[in-house]
Structure formats: C-alpha cells, structure tokens
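Collaborator request, handled under Task 6.
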Amino acid sequence: MKKLGREPRKLETLNLFSLLQRDDGSTLYDPGNHASFFAQVNSGLTEALDSESTLHGMRIQSLFAGMVANLGKAQLLKEEDSGVCYYEGDDLCLPDFRIVTTSGDVMLVETKNHFSKKGMSPFRIRRSDLDGLERYAKLVGTPLKIAVYWAGWNLWTLNDAASFAGNRKYAELEFRVAAMQSEMAALGDFMIGTKYPLVLRLIAATDKPRSISADGVASIHFKGFEIRCADTLIEDKTEQNIALYLMMYGKWEYDGGYIEFDDSGLPAAAVHTVSPDEITPNQGFEIIGSLSSLYSQLYNALTLEEGKVTRLRLTDPTAIAPIIPLQHEKKSLPLWRFVQTANI
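Structure tokens returned to the collaborator:
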C-alpha cells in the first residue's frame, strides 16, 4: 500500500499550535503564545512519556496499521479519530481506523492492547466507551469491530461489539470467545504451517583462522550459509527469506545454537534450529504462526526493549516484513495456509 504524503513538521505543528493557543484574544505572532505553546508541549510530552499505558496504546495503533497494510486485503486504511468532530446527542467515542477491504467491505476498527499478568484474563472495556463507539458507528452507518492485541500470546483478534458480555460498568471479551469469533481473515490474516525442523547452518571459511579456546569460545569467519526444512536444502532466494522470517519471528522453540566441528577438531559451522514444542502424530507439519503474529513479533523487536517502548511508530511500517506470496510455488519449502472462518 502507498502512504498519502503529508507535511507533519509544518502542518501538524501549526495545527497543534492553534489548538494550544491562549484564549485571550492574542494573535498567532504574539511572543507570549509561542512561550505558552512550548511550555505546554514540554509538559504534555513529559506526561505522556511517563504513562506506559499511553505509550503502549499508541504503539499498538501504529503496529495495527502497518500490519493491516502488509496483510494485503485492505485497499484503504485511514485514521478515523483525527480532526475536529461536532455532534448532537449522547456522547460519542471515535474509533481509531476506517478500513475498506479489497472486496469493498467497510469497517471501523478500535484497537486495544491487552496485557495481563494473570494469564489470559478477559479483555475489559468501559461500557460507556463501547456504547460511544457503537453510537458513532451507527451515525456513520458503518460496522464497528474491536481489534485486541493479546500481548501475552502475541495474538490479534477482530471482533464485533456483540461478542462482548456485561452491561454494567465494564464489558468483557473472553479469549476463548474472541478466538472463535475472530474476523482477522477479513483483513488477510491466515495461519502458516510447514515441515520441521527449520535449520540455519552458518559455514566456516576454512581458509581463515579458526579456533576454540579452553573455555569453549569459538572463533570463526563465515563464508556462507545453508537453510534446510526437514533436512531438505532450500536454494531458492524467496524461500530462503521466508524460512528465515519464520525462524526469527515464528512461535517454534529455538535450540540455542551449537558449534559443529570437523575431523580436525576445528569449528566447521554454527547451527541454529527451531522446532515445534508439540508434535501432532502422523501430520508431518506444524503451525509456526499467523501472518499477523509474525509481523507483530518483528514490529515488537523494532519498537520495544525489555518491554519498554523505545519507538511509537516506524517510518514505513509496510516495508519491514517480507511478503509470503499467496500463490507460493513450492520448491523446497512446503507451506500450509489455514484461513479461520469466524464461528458466529
């Protein structure tokens, strides 16, 4: 997807300046307005950086936008909650995004980050906020969906507001219900399976010095690599990229790596392997992740450090993930795709 060009440094700054301008009849050029603006920006930025929930919420919105752009079934994605909004009647809440899919369906999406220290506890939203979102959706005649990122499992679900239970202060969405009724497939999401294990073998250059110290530290220069899927060598560049992407950001277990030695006792290769932690008998392949989870894991690696937000957004979030072709021509890397139909 292409990104519509804007001039945030000039236009967004001017817009923010006008919003924070003192309401005392002074003009845009009044030095007092300038001083007040910079003081409010400094204060607001300090307050925001001290709020982990605010930072994670904004980061998840950016993650969702980049992910949807990468999934391939959206022809338009636009922020819905920006700009001035005037309304009559009961209070409204503006959802984060408006999405038009390639099939012509239109939806409003509110994104939420759900991190729980008590396992997979239900996601909760204030009933007044959910009602406000539904009122807005009704006014503009567009279906409302709630996208929840279950951070503990690196998993996205997309649900109708009707999936939420409870009519008091909070509405709740249980993970079991969210997973069964998820409509992520409408955005292009699917689960990926392949044969196991996936192995990356970094090959030592035998014409360069190689050694192993007394305390077990290997010194190696590498000359190339091999990638295998269930012992089959992968030679196609596209399949190599897909396999590396699955290895790095999929959910299979990494063995920690080990050094392979030749007959002379010198390091010959560094071997890294990922395998599923559970094997389904007589199946021959296992699920390694969904497109949304793979992208989210990569995005997290680029924007988090030990759980702390280091970046809110990427310059071009649509360019960070390699594309797994929908019509992948299998050569050495077999792929299984599973599209979930919402059980509603």
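The cover message to the collaborator said: "The helical segments are 8-19, 31-49, 52-71, 127-140, 175-180, 237-249, 291-303. The CA atoms of residues 17 and 182 lie 41 Å apart. Please let us know whether this matches your experimental observations."
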